[in-house]
Specification:
Mean pLDDT: 93
Number of helices: 13
Low-confidence stretches: 1-19
Strand order of the largest sheet: 1-2
Strand content: under 5%
Distance between the termini: 44 Å
Number of strands: 2
Structural class: mainly alpha
Number of domains: 3
Shape: globular
Largest sheet: 2 strands, antiparallel
Amino acid sequence: MKSWLSLLCLFTLAVSTASGQEKKVTSVSDQQEYRQMVDKAVEYLRVRGQKPDGSFSSEAGVGPTGLVTAALIDVGVSVEDPIVKKSLAYLQKHIQEDGGVYVKESLHRNYDTCISLMAFHKANKNGKYKTVIENANKFVRGIQWDESESIDASNMSYGGAGYGKQSRPDLSNTSFLVDTLHSLGASSDDEAIKKALLFVSRCQNLESPHNDSPHAAKINDGGFYYTVAGEGETKVEGPTEGGLRSYGSMTYAGLKSMIYAGVDKEDPRVKAAIKFLQQNYDIESNPGVGQQGLFYYYQTMAKALNAIGSDSFKDAKGKDHAWKKELLSKLKSLQQPDGSWINPTPRWMEGDPNLVCAYVLLTLAQIKP
């Protein structure tokens, strides 16, 4: 009997040890794969993406440079590395007297400043950019749609952020604003966060005490669309079903913004958004708009699922997805031989490998093995 028990113990130990070794090997393999993807992308941006003045795709303003800079720092590139130092110096040259960071003729002042602000915040070692951050923070708060635009909380634009001071607010830009304020430490009690949450809640297809928009109950699937402002707008083509149809990237943006704004996971708004995403779980496309905005979708998805603290995500059929591993594998399959990524469906600037590389690096920073 003792001999049999000894053999059983040895067998159990061997299986356990082998399993542990297998997990360790898999983990090491994932880490190596991850590092190779990042290194190839950084090399592409260093050699082929960055212009001599430190910018990336500057024909589109300073936004792409800010996004690339933030992404590089997120995946571990040092602020002392020439690629980051040069891009930060470029951004500094575009700091305006009002605290914004943008090209003077830009129509995207809020977008450019929010993204640049995140980059400066990530690079702010020893308080080097403290004043820049404080002034840019005041700027983006100042152009949020509120009483300063002579509107009150009953207006569907209230609390939102657009590309610039005069542009209609939308959920994408508002989510960038919430991202930025959240990264700077703004709490749920922050006035700008509370105003933004009102706008975000109104962009949800959900009838609730938080949503008095005329579109709230028309589809009522819990998803989000582009903007409730004005007559409202979605980017989903085809039948409207009497309302504004929800789609993937905006639903992840809405979910992430609500979590960052302090909305509890048991709140009906969060539950409804998660249910929509479970019903439309997809790694191959941006649900509702196909390949359009696919890489923007990936980075928003990764941030949102991390925000709810989920390493696995169950779809509507009850299947558990190791979404980080799935996303890592998908991004590896899409990486070009030169280290870049590009979307063959180029809407929303996703034909620009610099911008898409930034989106992917931001995604990879969220799914590091």
